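Suppose a classmate hands you a notebook page containing two proteins, each written out with its sequence and a corresponding row of structure tokens. How would you begin to make sense of it? This section walks through that situation. The first entry is reproduced here exactly as it would appear on such a page.
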Amino acid sequence: MYTAGVCACLALLPLSATADESKAPPQSNADTYRLLSLFGDVFEQVRSDYVEPVSDQQLIEAALNGMLSSLDPHSSYMSPKTFKDMEVQMKGEFGGLGIEVTMDQGFVKVVSPIDDTPAAKAGLKPNDLITGLNGESVQGLTLNEAVDRMRGPPNSTIRLTIRRDGKAPFDVTLTRAVIKIETVKSKLIGNVGYIRLTQFVETSDDGLRAAIEKLQKDSKGKLVGYVLDLRNNPGGLLNQAVAVAGDFLQSGDEVVSTRARRPEDTQRFNAHGGDRIDKLPLVVLINDGSASASEIVAGALKDHHRAILVGTRSFGKGSVQTVIRLPNQGGMRLTTARYYTPSGRSIQALGIEPDVRLTIDGKDAPLPTDEVRSEASLPHALKNDTVPAKAKAVVNKAKPGAAPDNGKADCQAEDAAEKAREAIKMGDPASDKQLDKALEILHNPVEAKASKAG
């Protein structure tokens, strides 16, 4: 999943590695060389006879990206420019539109606009399909290519063609900007500290700790609890997920473990430093846009009975991507492990089920399947290895861009529901029923006790 303007945000990124030939499996038979010879034959045929000239670099990079992207939705090749952009973004500042996207059946699909960015201000919504860029179709482009075209100098413009369920395609013109992501926002809501974390970048844990200190100071020590809002947070850095979870756990508590192909590469990550909110009750808000690092935090707090989770089922991305620097040739993002919550459970393609299931508009029923974002709906998604073979992952079976076909009355009902959702302001308890429920829990001594440390 990518952020238009830079790089992937839905990847857990451990410390960057360098390609190491010593870890590669031995080449054991002639079949490998025969297949490489086949690749060479195809390469030469395209190079010499394709209808238009193509550079060797273009062909090789396309082949590399095709090889990696065919493995799972999150592995990919990064050109030197894309690799540099990724490093910049993980520092919390980049140029572009401010929108997390993925590829879905040939179109660029919006996962979530980042708060206070051109994409958010233009009204782009989760599940929107970007079908054109400046009048040209995105079909045939890789995700990297589409993201690269959406980047550009600050103050330059780009026209996106948007397809939204039940509506005719329309154009939106956005002005690119230098996007400095404030990943942590906080405020007092009465005697409750509200903290919203939008991504996991290098500065996220420092920002969280500063927010906690400010809330404690502003409340004059009268806080009754905290709300940690991870809705629409697509993830980010693994070490930041461990640090953030550790701010609410006891030192030594396990946050997450990762298991690679080789058993000896299994790793466990524990909390350090202790609970920074003095064991006060905690409610965590999640939804189907909460992914990867967000799910690590939510899963750890749930398994340790440290927080009550409110919202809807999370996205279900339970894999770890390692960023590998390739000498003088950019890098690659390779899925190298699955991660597991402290109880040993994988959320891959399943997500995390909240303790209190509630939509943002106050309904306790699950969202319709055509509105749910899910890892399981992505092409080549990894299977979950901790559930019985007969168990089914939560798959979004909706056809992207398909209009409702249940008649005029249903279309009108959907339009009314869409307008109602548009009126909801996330973070405002007057309209945000998930947040309102969190506040209710924290003001109820019996319910709040369930989320109190110790």
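The notebook's second entry, a different protein, reads as follows.
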Amino acid sequence: MAILAIEARRLGSEQTGIGHYLRWCLSDLLAHTPPGDRVVLYAFRKVKFSTPNHAIMRTGRFTFLPNTVWIHTEIPLWSRLDRIDSLWCPAQIAPFFMPERVKIILTVHDLIPIIAPHLSSRLYRWYMGHLIPSSVRKAQHVFTISHASKRDLVEHMGVKEENITVVYPPIPPHFKPHNMEESRHYVKRKLGVSKPFFLFVGRFEPRKNLTGIIEAMKLIRDRRGELPFSLIAVGNKGWRTEEILKEANVLGNDFIPAFNVKSELLLALYSSCVALVLPSFYEGFGLPLAEAMACGSPVITSNISACPEVAGEAGIIINPREPEEIAGAMETLIDNKHLRDSLASKALHRIAEIRQSAKGFGRRLWEVVHEKA
């Protein structure tokens, strides 16, 4: 019998990429628990999550601490009391002071603080820049969410390839094509947008390169006299958001920011946009790319990190540092319906491959739990 504990701080954070990843991976993991094995969830606060008979949830008592500190206090204590065999840490870092006998299994989503520290805030790169390397050194096995991230782990962290498993993150089934006309009318009713529109989804921060799209739209307007489309930018506020919004003022009503968007509206946006535009400077995976493709949307994305891997043949790949390339891709898609339809068809094929990979997570993690050192 093996006891697997899970660091579940992010279980109540489904609006974040890691929170979404944890909840869906947990469902797969619990569904494939071998007979006789047990699961213990270590949550920071009480959250709504149904656990089967072979699993229990512990919730924190030291919640007066920031969760970034809490992880290093109660989890090591609980691990001793529960006599766990393995701990899966899905959010890049492992607790300090863990018993040596406990196998650490770590998910690393990206190495931004290590590879591109200038793309994150000073506090984030200080905290994660120290804790990711120390956590990777502790881990007996590392899961990651793209082959690009695997290469980064090998090249920048010295992890052996045989100690890394790549499993794409799960894409929930409600991300699927919806009726385009109905979706367009819903978007118009909610946001007042009547023009064709491109879509951006992501945190409003420098790494996502929303300013690159703004610069591209300015180039198109200069060429054509006016913009034949709008940009709807969906996401949460992040590092240097106000600077980005100030730059977008030059686009007037053709730039529509939308924060805290509900699932129904997001699905309608994916299903009725000309394309998703995500010219990020770095992505460990790029979840909005997969969500958009699952809804039958073409994508325009970067030629670096995991972006071209995720998009496959369903996207137009550009240099994110060249606004002219972003502008050219946007103009090509707005003018060429045949290409849009072709990329949409390829998107559905690519997302089927990604979903097939995601199905292997639960079984593979239990294999790692039971592997002998």
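A careful reader of the second entry would note: The chain has two domains: 3-166, 180-355.
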